[in-house]
Amino acid sequence: xxxxxxxxxxxxxxxxxxxxxxxxxxxxxxxxxxxxxxxxxxxxxxxxxxxxxxxxxxxxxxxxxxxxxxxxxxxxxxxxxxxxxxxxxxxxxxxxxxxxxxxxxxxxxxxxxxxxxxxxxxxxxxxxxxxxxxxxxxxxxxxxxxxxxxxxxxxxxxxxxxxxxxxxxxxxxxxxxxxxxxxxxxxxxxxxxxxxxxxxxxxxxxxxxxxxxxxxxxxxxxxxxxxxxxxxxxxxxxxxxxxxxxxxxxxxxxxxxxxxxxxxxxxxxxxxxxxxxxxxxxxxxxxxxxxxxxxxxxxxxxxxxxxxxxxxxxxxxxxxxxxxxxxxxxxxxxxxxxxxxxxxxxxxxxxxxxxxxxxxxxxxxxxxxxxxxxxxxxxx
Length: 380
Ligand SMILES: Cc1cc2nc3c(=O)[nH]c(=O)nc-3n(C[C@H](O)[C@H](O)[C@H](O)COP(=O)(O)O)c2cc1C
Hints:
Structural class: alpha+beta
Radius of gyration: 20 Å
CATH class of the largest domain: Alpha Beta
Number of strands: 11
Bound molecules: flavin mononucleotide
Number of helices: 14
């Protein structure tokens, strides 16, 4: 698939989508009923405001600190719940978990939540260097776990990873299957060498097919879990107005799905999200990918998970810098029974596989939004 081809809807098959649209029309839902054009303009301007580089000559210290927080919020994070709060004090930025935004069904032990904080920390470190600040990162297990980042002056350095921050996205679409050159695979695999995290990078088609079997097993378990679907639906934003209003959650258009009023989206999701439809989708998506990477941290605790997040964010930024898209395929590791089997398959024994992503060349999708720094900075 070329970059400008329209992607297929990801949680609906084509037939289900047509059926859904017919339902919408029969239900008397017209584009004007949910003010599509005005909402879309608002969404577009928020997306442009969110996904941009800042002024490189920003001066007052307080403004730079706020800008670093903005960069941190552009990190990947589970269900786009943005489970973080930031406290600024002198030369220290502390990233606190926001447990009000946890996902107890898909992430009962807050594994994904702390990985998300690690992703944010890595963006912040890369941005700090661009603003002439070195960053020492430490994990403080007190107060239920927080990441403390101490900043000190240095010569400004705009890394390729920093440059990639505003263009990175999770691209949930089919890719074109083109192989990634070996030298670039080495760069991508090398992102796992940081913070004692191991990376398993697979490009062999037979091995990817085996990985796919675990993705399908995980997906089948999740689709038949009503609590999982309820939690997913809670974080879905089915149209531009809803995405712009909340500035968090999973914007359905970012996965190539049609814009629908929230009530209709929720209803159709229950009907259209079938095990076989989703499994077909994942077959196409995984088989069209150039490779798969799995990350395994050195320790199974909150500090270890934040390290995995930092590594994973480095991987995503490195891929973006090379013009390579990526998307998570975490299904095998989100379902404990499948996760055990998957660890055995990878030959890592009892160690927990923390994250898995596919990568390759695909289209650019609509962006997910973020809450602005003012809404995530709290008093220290
Ligand atoms: C720990 C973690 C787990 C995630 N799991 C999934 C997943 O299972 N499936 C998926 O499509 N995206 C997954 N994501 C991606 C997020 O949904 C995505 O980062 C978020 O919606 C924001 O979108 P963006 O990264 O394109 O800005 C995960 C991200 C993180 C950090």
